[in-house]
């Protein structure tokens, strides 16, 4: 017998968990179908697509071939009706409208976008799907090339995405101050974790997710400055759209903005909102139906694609018409992030020193053995008087003395006689 001296076969490369889910849904495959084909349970497939575990051995190779990442990358299917998750046509990332187009200085930034080199994951390169009718292809969000320093790459990302992201936050919250605060918080967090953000497949999406989470936090209602929304637009049509948008639940509002305004596909929208694809589709349909009840132009359009186009135009016009505060310069945000990080570091050090000092003082002053505490003095009442013989009177003492001085005359002591 000949022994195989070759080492183990290299593992089949797999994309990120989010990309695995997108590839599976692009092929109109459900978790149950993939689980039956690979020979595992649907819960295992769900764990693979959330990043908790990874397939191994022959199951890894079978899973890679099934979702289409072992060889060529298939183009996403035009519909997800076969999965039963939605009846609308999803748009792939980069094929829908971008919120950067809502900013007045978008044409001037296109030249800066072309000057940057895109550094995407080789496993993530896939042919872009054709944009649906009424949607213009959005310019890809540039990622910094290797020649740029961390500060230059961060500033480039901030300059390209901060204005449009601020307008998104205003449509999401209806509060201008909170919009700017959310964007600053997101980019400060991004600078503190810049190595992770720079290696991310979509840095702009990473920052956007942090900004959305901060803006939707219910704790802002406790702050006096953010309790009430700003004044709505004066134009009746824009006012109706603005009030209808703020009347939606926060999860519905976020799903609607990400899909119909930002231009994310349904799987990407579900992944960013941490929901399943059917849940995201249900939120999107309910949000559109609620807006259609208040907006006549949406009520007349029955086609989901037509509603998406109308919403895209109306949201773009509303975002451009509203005056939002300009974000601060990128160097100021970086300096603020470093200042906040320094404050937290000093606070942690001071707390550690205080904890160590308190522990040392306690150990030094604490007794080495237990000493029972003395009870405090207290007046005791209800004790009975002392008993016993009474004190002798002078007459008794005189009688006692006379008895002791006299001889006793009595019978003689009997002495036993022994024979």
Automatic annotation (TrEMBL):
Keyword flag Transcription: yes
Keywords (A to Z) from UniProt: DNA-binding, Sigma factor, Transcription, Transcription regulation
Domain (HTH cro/C1-type) ranges: 21-55
InterPro entries per the UniProt record, alphabetical: Cro/C1-type_HTH (IPR001387), Lambda_DNA-bd_dom_sf (IPR010982), RNA_pol_sigma-70-like (IPR039425), RNA_pol_sigma70_r4_t2 (IPR013249), RNA_pol_sigma_r2 (IPR013325), RNA_pol_sigma_r3/r4-like (IPR013324), WH-like_DNA-bd_sf (IPR036388)
Start-end of Polar residues biased regions: 80-92
Residue ranges, annotated region (Disordered): 1-20, 69-107, 122-143
PROSITE patterns: HTH_CROC1
Similarity remark: Belongs to the sigma-70 factor family. ECF subfamily.
Full protein name: Helix-turn-helix domain-containing protein
Species per Swiss-Prot/TrEMBL record: Streptomyces silvae
């Amino acid at each position: 017998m000949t022994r195989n001296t070759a080492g183990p076969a290299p593992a089949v490369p797999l994309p990120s968990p989010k990309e695995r889910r997108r590839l599976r849904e692009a092929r109109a495959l459900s978790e149950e179908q993939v689980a039956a084909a690979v020979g595992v349970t649907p819960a295992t497939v769900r764990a693979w697509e959330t990043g908790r575990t990874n397939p191994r051995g022959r199951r890894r190779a079978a899973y890679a071939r099934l979702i289409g990442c072992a060889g060529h990358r298939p183009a996403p299917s035009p519909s997800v009706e076969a999965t039963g998750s939605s009846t609308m046509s999803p748009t792939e990332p980069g094929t829908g409208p971008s919120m950067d187009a809502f900013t007045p200085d978008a044409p001037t930034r296109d030249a800066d976008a072309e000057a940057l080199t895109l550094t995407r994951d080789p496993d993530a390169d896939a042919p872009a799907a054709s944009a649906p009718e009424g949607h213009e292809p959005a310019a890809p969000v540039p990622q910094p090339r290797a020649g740029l320093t961390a500060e230059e790459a961060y500033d480039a990302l901030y300059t390209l995405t901060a204005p449009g992201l601020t307008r998104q936050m205003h449509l999401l919250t209806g509060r201008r101050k909170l919009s700017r605060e959310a964007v600053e918080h997101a980019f400060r967090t991004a600078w503190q974790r810049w190595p992770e953000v720079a290696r991310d497949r979509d840095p702009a999406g990473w920052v956007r997710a942090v900004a959305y989470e901060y803006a939707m936090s219910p704790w802002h209602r406790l702050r006096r400055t953010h309790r009430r929304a700003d004044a709505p637009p004066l134009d009746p049509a824009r006012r109706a759209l603005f009030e209808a948008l703020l009347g939606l639940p926060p999860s519905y509002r976020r799903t609607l903005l990400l899909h119909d305004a930002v231009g994310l596909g349904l799987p990407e929208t579900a992944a960013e909102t941490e929901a399943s694809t059917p849940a995201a589709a249900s939120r999107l349909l309910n949000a559109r139906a609620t807006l259609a009840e208040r907006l006549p132009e949406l009520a007349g359009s029955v086609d989901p694609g037509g509603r998406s186009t109308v919403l895209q135009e109306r949201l773009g016009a509303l975002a451009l018409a509203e005056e939002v505060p300009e974000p601060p310069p990128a160097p100021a945000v970086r300096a603020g992030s470093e200042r906040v990080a320094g404050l937290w570091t000093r606070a942690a050090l001071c707390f550690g020193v205080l904890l160590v000092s308190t522990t040392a003082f306690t150990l030094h002053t604490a007794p080495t053995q237990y000493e029972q505490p003395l009870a405090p003095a207290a007046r005791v009442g209800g004790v009975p008087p002392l008993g016993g013989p009474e004190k002798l009177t002078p007459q008794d003492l005189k009688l006692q003395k006379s008895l002791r001085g006299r001889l006793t005359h009595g019978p003689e002591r009997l002495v036993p006689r022994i024979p």
